[in-house]
């Protein structure tokens, strides 16, 4: 039983390109794309991207500051037009971008297509959002006075993006900062600089001046740290680990200089609560998608399945059956469902965790053959006796399962205690229960009776609470406000010197 995670309302055509369905439900356009994708794959090479040294970083920040006033004073429609042109160009270059993603980030074809679509959506969505929110608002005031609230750019933003969505999240961060009139110093993940470079080239070709958007590649410990420590930057937007978000927050607080905003979207120990009325087929489908798709390398991915004991055996049996059908292998093969993990360090970390789980928990899936050379880990699941035993986010195709009985609100309480708050799945046929449980969960994105990945731009604004980040939610109507400074202008319209018109 497949519940289609498509929104029920028709979406504005300018927001959703012709290929767009849903970042998670992607197969619709694949037959047409297969030939161009294969052709692109045969030609693609991953270019080397030079690392930025300290002198280049200092110079980039200076250029970014100098470029900001001109960029921010340009009409928002002009900036939005550039983002839309970049979106069109990106859509046209679907095949080569996917081929580069498969090669550089080892994502499966389906994930790559969804990712390019998401990047395109971010560009178009933030273009429209900037046009909407950057209009001055007239506020009430006493006679003889005019009051206006305006949003203005803040200055150079540092955008630090992850390797797991190296095009979509990179483009989303950059587009949000640019649309609102800020300049950008973009620091992509060390593992995936080439796809970031492609996105930057498309934005430059669409009219964004080179000093307005600069790419600074290199390790977080040096390049990222130098950017964050610079007193001339105006804000940081970061997606990555909770640990690094805290390092950034500390560094921002410790330096001399202004107090600047941090937008952080980090990890999660994301749970799915399944009650005794849930449909097992639907649960199994949602679990397999949420836990194992993208090799579990999504911050939204399901890590902890809490299933009511009355249906646990049946649900587990179905998950075992479904997981057996998944093909783990080379991401460039069409049949592959689960590709490699990103690098050797990730592979080693996961192997260590799996060894501990084999010793302490009940394995539910055959171990399969983990292959260090190809960094492949077949989907794994383990039954634990208590939610509290899951102590950290495990970023891979590894599911933890716990049975429960009694009050589902207590399960939500135990999930809250973990301290993360990114995604939550609820599977129930008691309609009133889902909202009651969502009310008690300190969690940013709740998905009822479906999978819990693939948040769609403009439809499921994405981001978490607590250890999962600061918000506001990416791809949502409040996101761009955080990139702006607010200014009120109060004018005494009776003052000597004549009538002063409202500021435009
Ligand atoms: C992430 O993994 O960093 O909902 C974000 C999703 C994506 C967002 C994941 N749109 O799966």
Average per-residue pLDDT, rounded, comes to: 92
Q: Number of helical segments?
A: 14
Quaternary state of the chains: single chain
Instruction: Say which molecules are bound, naming each kind only once.
Output: 2-aminohexanedioic acid
Unreliably modeled segments: 1-29
What is the global morphology? globular
Please identify the structural class as seen in this structure: alpha/beta
User: Strands of the largest sheet, in order across it?
Assistant: 10-11-12-9-8-14-15
Pathway: Amino-acid degradation; L-proline degradation into L-glutamate; L-glutamate from L-proline: step 2/2; Amino-acid degradation; L-proline degradation into L-glutamate; L-glutamate from L-proline: step 1/2
Family: In the C-terminal section; belongs to the aldehyde dehydrogenase family.
Active site: 265, 299
EC number: 1.5.5.2, 1.2.1.88
Structure, described:
The protein is α/β, with parallel strands linked by helices and 504 residues long. 40% of the residues lie in helices and 16% in strands. The strands form 4 sheets. The protein has a 7-stranded mixed β-sheet with strand order 10-11-12-9-8-14-15, with helices on both faces. Strands 5-4-3-6-7 form a 5-stranded parallel β-sheet, sandwiched between helices. Strands 1-2-17 form a 3-stranded antiparallel β-sheet, with no helix packed on it. Helix 6 links the parallel strand 3 and strand 4. Helix 5 (109-133) packs parallel to helix 6 (168-179). The chain is globular. It binds 2-aminohexanedioic acid. Residues 23, 162, 164-165, 239, 298-300, 453-455, 462 line the site of 2-aminohexanedioic acid. Keywords: DNA-binding, FAD, Flavoprotein, NAD, Oxidoreductase, Proline metabolism, Repressor, Transcription, Transcription regulation.
């Amino acid at each position: 039983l497949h519940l289609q995670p498509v929104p029920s309302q028709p979406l504005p055509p300018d927001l959703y390109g012709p290929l767009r369905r849903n970042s998670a439900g992607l197969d619709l356009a694949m037959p047409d794309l297969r030939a161009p994708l294969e052709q692109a794959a045969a030609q693609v090479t991953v270019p080397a991207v030079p690392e930025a040294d300290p002198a280049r970083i200092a110079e980039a920040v200076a250029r970014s500051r100098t470029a900001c006033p001109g960029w921010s004073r340009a009409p928002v429609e002009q900036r939005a037009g550039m983002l839309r042109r970049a979106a069109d160009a990106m859509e046209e270059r679907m095949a080569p971008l996917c081929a580069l993603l498969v090669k550089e980030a080892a994502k499966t074809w389906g994930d790559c297509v969804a990712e390019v679509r998401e990047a395109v959506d971010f560009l178009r969505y933030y273009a429209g959002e900037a046009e909407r929110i950057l209009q001055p608002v007239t506020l009430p005031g006493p006679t003889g006075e005019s009051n206006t609230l305006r949003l203005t750019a803040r200055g150079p933003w540092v955008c630090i993006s992850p390797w797991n969505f190296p095009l979509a999240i990179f483009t989303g961060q950059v587009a949000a900062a640019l649309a609102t009139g800020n300049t950008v110093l973009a620091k992509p993940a060390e593992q995936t600089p080439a796809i970031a470079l492609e996105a930057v080239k498309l934005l430059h070709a669409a009219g964004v001046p080179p000093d307005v958007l600069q790419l600074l590649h290199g390790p977080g410990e040096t390049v990222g740290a130098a950017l964050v420590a610079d007193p001339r930057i105006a804000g940081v937007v970061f997606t990555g680990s909770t640990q690094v978000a805290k390092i950034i927050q500390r560094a921002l607080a410790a330096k001399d200089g202004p107090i600047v905003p941090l937008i952080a979207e980090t990890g999660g120990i994301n749970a799915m609560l399944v009650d005794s009325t849930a449909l097992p087929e639907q649960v199994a489908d949602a679990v397999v998608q949420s836990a194992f798709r993208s090799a579990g390398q999504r911050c939204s991915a399901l890590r902890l399945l809490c299933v009511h004991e009355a249906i646990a055996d049946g649900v587990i049996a179905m998950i075992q059956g479904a997981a057996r059908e998944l093909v783990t292998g080379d991401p460039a093969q069409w049949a592959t469902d689960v590709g490699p993990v990103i690098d050797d360090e990730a592979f080693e970390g996961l192997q260590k965790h799996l060894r501990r789980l084999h010793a302490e928990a009940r394995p539910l899936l055959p171990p399969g053959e983990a292959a260090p050379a190809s960094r492949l880990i077949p989907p794994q699941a383990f039954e634990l006796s208590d939610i509290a035993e899951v102590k950290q986010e495990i970023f891979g195709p590894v599911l933890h399962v716990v049975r429960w009985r009694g009050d589902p609100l207590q399960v939500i309480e135990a999930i809250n205690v973990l301290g993360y708050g990114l995604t939550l799945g609820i599977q129930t046929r008691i309609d009133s229960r889902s909202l009651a449980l969502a009310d008690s969960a300190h969690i940013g994105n709740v998905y009822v009776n479906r999978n819990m990945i693939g948040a769609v731009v403009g439809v499921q604004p994405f981001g978490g609470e607590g250890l999962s980040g600061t918000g506001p939610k990416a791809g949502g109507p409040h996101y761009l406000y955080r990139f702006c400074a607010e200014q009120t202008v109060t004018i005494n319209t009776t003052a000597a010197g004549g009538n002063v018109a409202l500021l435009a």
